[in-house]
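Researcher: Next entry: Hemoglobin subunit alpha (Suricata suricatta).
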Amino acid sequence: MLSAQERAHVAQVWDLIAGHEAAFGAELLLRLFTVYPSTKTYFKHLGVCPDETQLLTHGRRMLEAVGVAVRHFDHLRAALSPLADLHAQVLRVDPSNFPPLIQCFQVVLASHLQDEFTVEMHAAWDKFLTHVAIVLTEKYR
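Model: Predicted structure:
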């Protein structure tokens, strides 16, 4: 569970990136594919150009889901239930891909927000994203 201060840090960072979901999400995916090439298995239809429409669209959808999690933290399981079902039962994404995704997201946040992304914010986002990943993997059998 996140403390009130950690929630404030998560909300503060989200306020800085809200409205830029497509760009942040596309960069996140490109970093993920570069550093962890095996993750591209799930995204064969996506190119590797930062301005490619499909990459921007999927990146936006990913970050919009993070936005849902930020807004519905107290009801995270209910808010992310459809997404958890999709990943576990339809897409069958290997849950071991979530930690590298979290790591790459942290790098994107740090590279864009720089000094605004404090150590405390980093720790809060790590805890928050780990909790999101746990919720997304609870429906795996």
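Model: Note for the record: The helical segments are 4-17, 21-35, 53-71, 76-91, 98-113, 119-137.
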